[in-house]
Amino acid sequence: FHYFCKMAFFNIWIIAMAILLSPIAALRGRSVENMKLLRAAILPLKHFYGIKMQVWGSEHLNIKEPYVIVCNHQASLDVMGMMEVIPERCVPIAKKEVLYMGIVGFACWLSGFIFINRHKTEDAINVISQTARTMRRENLRVLIFPEGTRNQDKSMLPFKRGAFHLAVQAQVPIVPVVISPYWDFFSSKDKKFTPGTCTIRILPKVETQGLSPKDVPELTETVRQAMADALAKMS
Hints:
- The chain is of the alpha/beta class.
- It has a single domain, classed as 3-Layer(aba) Sandwich (Glycerol-3-phosphate (1)-acyltransferase), CATH 3.40.1130.
- About 45% of the residues lie in helices and about 15% in strands.
- Strands 1-9-6-2-5-3-4 form a seven-stranded mixed β-sheet, sandwiched between helices. Strands 7-8 form a two-stranded antiparallel ribbon.
- Keywords: Acyltransferase, Lipid biosynthesis, Lipid metabolism, Membrane, Phospholipid biosynthesis, Phospholipid metabolism, Transferase, Transmembrane, Transmembrane helix.
């Protein structure tokens, strides 16, 4: 019962904040700067749930140039971890279905989210190419979950290569971020949701200068292995 109440509150909070903030964001116009509003709306949630956030390696995000953040994806709770570390001028890449989630999708669009159609390869490639140009032009950071779907297993799923193609096309670094497992306090399978501690480890950047599309498979696996090793230690 407590699990369902807490999850219901999570969804109600997100919808309520979207309703509250969308008119303000709309007046400002669609902009990555609206991510600050979204972040301010989501950060208080950790206090309601009694979740303590520990961040290690935040100095690795102190990069003036554009970069791509890749993060493991476990549950809807990831949005809290994401907002804990998201840097200035950073937008997530989300599946296109999010855009059609009513007022929440509208709030995400106003905040500059980049939407990608995972079922149409050609469309996805076009979005990646366009984003690579925008990153350079507007000094934008982009956050992607390369597993592509939520995964609460002990190991990470194989990574999709879109994030790595983007980094190579834009010739910008990749910053891996690993969120510790939630098993101690959260499990959708066991319907458990109690107070707990979440650790976020930010790993050193991985350069892509001089790499070409043929290097993407090896780059993808190198980053995934570094993140998997960090996750194993945090487990």
